[in-house]
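Table S7 (text form). Paired inputs.
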Amino acid sequence: MDLASLPASAINPLPREELAEGGTLRWGVNDFPAQWNPHHANGNLSTVATVMDGLLPTPFRTDDKGRAHPDPDYVEEVTVTTEPRQVVTLKLNPEARWSTGDPITWRDYAAMATALSGRGEGYEILGEAGYDRISEVRRGADEFEVVIEFARPFAEYEALFSHLLPHEYTSSPAKFNEGYRETIPVTAGPFEFEEIDPTGQTITVVRDTDWWGEPALLDRIVYRAMAPDALDAAFLDGGIDAYAPAPESGSYARVRDARDSEVRAALAPDYRHITLNGQSPILADVDVRHALFLAIDRTALAAAAFSSIGWEPEPLGNHFLMPTQDGYVDNSGEWAGPDPQRAAELLERAGWTLGKDGGQVRVKDGRELRLTFVVPQGYATAQSEAELVQAMLGEVGIAVDIEAVPGDSLFSEHVLPGDYDLVAFVNYGTGFPVSPSMAQWSDAVTDDSGSPLWRSNVGRIGSPEIDAAMNAALAEFSPEAARERINEADRLLWEAGHTLPLYQRPELVAVREDIANLGAAGFAALDQADIGFVKNG
């Protein structure tokens, strides 16, 4: 397997008339979230996005090339002007309704823009990219026309309002923060929420009979959360019908020959990385962070990760763009590694020295250079990866303690609060290079007490210069100029020692052969209403 041979999308596309109506799809997922608001700081999980794709409005959908188009189920027409100011006018589908029966109107867009602008107190938002540029959202010719005026240009405007929430749940911090916690109260998609079962770790959605678009083919989807090895076993014994086996694990080898099934693979804007906590007392020093970059052999990590599928990706040199995307530049430069000798020199310069008594761990002011690498329990590949990193850093005198924590608390109790030194996870990208991940790289803002608030920047490393470069990229309507700014921001991230990208990942989805319109969508957005089982005969 290699990226050059992978298709842009692999979902077994079939027209609806060739598919049966009805049936239950059992979809395996990795997380069992508590927060179902995808715009909340704790809702930034792939499972939340997957479930909400069939439940909440998304005004624009991307194709397999990452190009955005209005979704006629929600938006009938779009008009954009850029002079004297950027104004985007959306003509909404007047048949679109929330599950409460209320129409989807300009008020929902206006309330959400205010909530996510970053200017309101108490909203625990994932990020404000794009919304902070909106000066006004107002009613147009009627309640189904939304006029969005920008104070500053925002080229990735199609990324906004995905997933749209009803204004009742964005008009106050309490509703925004708690309204979708452990429940999904209001929807507006081809499916509607039925139940969450904490004991069985399942989320069930059913066909929405009030849906105004093409009705969902499936009766219901049951999402079942399990650890990777358990997902493999459940797929092999028929307990689930679809899931995404981790390309880095042995899952692919275990399930690729499963009976009446196939693994669908496509290009994807996803990559694995190691994030360093810049507020850790040891990692606050950029020289130490760069030493870690240089001590880690990313080629060896990739080779170990993909040994089961015989694929050896090149180390990734960009935080925003993948090698398969236009404008990609490897900006890792002098921090690419591996260079253990230079890593040792940087540590010496930072005051971390090896004792004359032959000790293997560096010390400074009587303190050992010892870091904690948190990994999710039950993920053998994550454990193996951490052990490889442990050995690599040990070669330059850095001790690493590996701490396995419950998978459902990895982010909520460790990564988000900053209770870690190192952590590895996957960035799931989209067709929009900057805005969806901007919060991950943005400098801190201050809370009411004047303390820094990092929001989704779990690395807690930032600068006004990085923010300025990202903002400049988002203001460019010329793709070429935008890519120049993106690469400027990326070079600054490398210089700041913020997050070590490892490699681009293929998207793999194991699916029963008789399921259509589901699989590895790549840059495209799946239409869950069209997922179905092939008719017999």
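Next pair, protein 2 of 2.
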Amino acid sequence: MAQAMARTGEKESFAALLEESLGAAESLEGTVVKGRVVSVDNDMVTIDVGLKSEGRVALKEFAVAGQPPELKAGDTVEVYLERMEDKNGEAMLSREKAKREEAWALLEKSFQDQSRVTGVIFGRVKGGFTVDLSGAVAFLPGSQVDIRPVRDISPLLGTPQPFQILKMDRSRGNIVVSRRAVLEESRAEARSELVANLKEGQVLQGVVKNITDYGAFVDLGGVDGLLHVTDIAWRRINHPSEALQIGQTVTVQVIRFNPETQRISLGMKQLEADPWEGVEAKYPVSARFKGRVTNITDYGAFVELEPGIEGLVHVSEMSWTKKNVHPGKIVSTSQEVEVMVLDVDPQKRRISLGLKQCLDNPWETFLDKFGPGTELEGEVKNITEFGLFVGLPGDIDGMVHMSDLDWNKSGEEAIAEYKKGDRVKVKVLDVDVEKERISLGIKQLANDPFEAATAGLKKNDVVTCTVTQVTDGGIEVAVGEGYTGFIRKSDLSRDRAEQRPDRFAVGEKVDAKVTQIDRGSRRISLSIKAREMEEEKQAMAEYGSSDSGASLGDILGAALKRKQSTEE
């Protein structure tokens, strides 16, 4: 009886112990436990964690990122106990979850302390990348990879990087990290150190961060400086993108630094020799050089003589003949041209160049070939109120003044007979190379009829002329071949009472003395009064004497009778 009771007690005690043992084991589910490696078979590891059955874990779960797993029998490892038994009666173990649990504990502490953690970027997902934080997988948004957008992230893959934890949710297993926050913090520290030691003239390395129309912003390592387009190179640069690109590493010099505003002006050309030094010796006045057209404006074209040295060809110095033409119609960008140095101003860094001076002066060439007196034929290019412009050899124009169109007609009458496009013969009268003017004549192609008519005529000759017009101021008369003469009212008679124009009639013939031949106005001035006085003087000399007692009337009467008989 007693034995039976003893056996019953032992059974109850064993059952209690077994139940206690099983309960304790069940309480280990969902925790990290220590185990001993029993064996490593191919890609599986058998581990004894002190339960009634062993568990197996894939060998790859023991691998460290980027390295093969190193594990052997007898090693002690920590694994996560998921369940006491699976369908095969084995304990369900996980090294991955054990590492994650361990990592989460450390990460939560780092998150609370706002301290940095180390991780490895190992994959790409939508919107960003995956990071291994010593067993825990975190999400790295694309915007948090770097301070600037990163086009190629491959150099960062598989390399341990510092990260800042932005957000953690253990229940969901979510971790969001940022590499940018770490870089910005380091950048702020570097910025403070850089600004504290910054001074003008300092040479630094930087990375082109952004490019605008007026220059480029260069990251000096925590602080940005402006590299103006005019300070990139000595040569002309129309846009910074011609010489720089985003992400390019450049060497720059601090030109100006304002500690208050922390504005930094940078320069690249200042690190090179100034090409303008000794420019007067390199480019003497009147010397010819070849250059390349870099820019064309309304007022001229810029020509690069060497990198950093440009000169301006003003529109007035571009062509001998094309005066009111846009420079773009004479030269084109990138065209190679020959120019002459006209002026050099090293202080203002300006060189004046001439394009036409390297070409033959068409007025000099014209003068050499067609001097005054040469007869040519050309087209009427334009008609103005003062004359005709006629096209001449050498793509230049000469002018026929209206006064040189016809010997007899007035300028207005003569110019009305021409129209644009007419072919006309002209004679070269004068060539002024300095003023770029050529005077032409059409009437000069024929002899001056006035000269022919007055060839034998001289002052004081007495001529017979015909009254053509009676005016208040005198009478107009035709002399010789119809050339006009004029007798003023005061010259109509020696006798004042007879000085009346109305006593003459158109068509009446009169004798008068020539008092002036004006070849400029092509007119002859005459005087009846002078003729009468001359005749009186001759009569007095011939028929009168102081002691003859003859009266003036007798003398003149005798002279007139003699003249009449001579004429008969």
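Residues 14-25, 546-550 have pLDDT under 50 and may be disordered.
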